């Protein structure tokens, strides 16, 4: 067996695997141990589906990436399972959004006993203050913080996510640094292309027509980056049903501003959108994907597909 192969194998073994190998007396015959070591693949756990996809783009073949909150599921109200704690305990690396998005994560990570490094994808992004939804708090009586966590709705922010994840992977697995750098470069180029594509779609709509009503305030970053106005029913979180008063408020806004389209997200009760459309006379657009991917067969199985789908659905509804 050539030396270079041996060197690679040793680098790939994590400290824990190394100790196991030593105690099992495998070190003297490290070749067979290496040959069957898919230990070469990192176990990376991301908190939700969009972040898992972005992480996969950068990790490529070097990692198995798991998402705790799955497709079409809502991280705002997620309840962790015993399996999640086990998954975290076995992780080599954890990726979270941060900015208070995954309220369930800090306690879950602690109780799992995981010692894995944590990458906070939003570190260093240009954050956005939460919009005060009509100056009320939807009756929860508690505050989720001042910053809007839905940063992935900005392509520029996801370029920062990409660099943070790239650095985290390299720190954990420096032997494959060149692979992570190359994957991250490729992905950043795709993100640049995505941004231009969305800009082109939206620039075709006159700016005074770019008003949309949605059921939860997840599109602040998209609005800032691409110049669309969103008015929402629920405010930032999806906790709790929107009240009759919330819906009445949005109907008033939609009528006042002559909103041209009403959307509901993939995680929401479709009846809300139907009611809004009926009462405002605005067009009911297709589903927008805010906080979760669709499944593989759906229209948004990846982050890039999600952003393209949303941009097309929005511009489709806004043009006449
Ligand atoms: Zn959300």
Could you characterize the architecture of this molecule?
- With 320 residues, the protein is of the alpha/beta class.
- It has helices at 3-12, 15-23, 30-35, 49-59, 82-89, 105-112, 155-172, 177-203, 220-226, 244-256, 270-280, 303-318, and strands spanning 42-48, 63-69, 93-96, 118-120, 211-214, 229-232, 261-262, 283-284.
- The protein has two domains: 3-192, Rossmann fold (3-Layer(aba) Sandwich); 203-318, Rossmann fold (3-Layer(aba) Sandwich), CATH 3.40.50.1980.
- It is built from twelve helices and eight strands.
- The strands form two sheets. A four-stranded parallel beta sheet has the order 2-1-3-4, with helices on both faces. The chain has a four-stranded parallel beta sheet with strand order 6-5-7-8, sandwiched between helices.
- Zinc ion is lined by residues 76, 150, 216, 218, 238, 290-291.
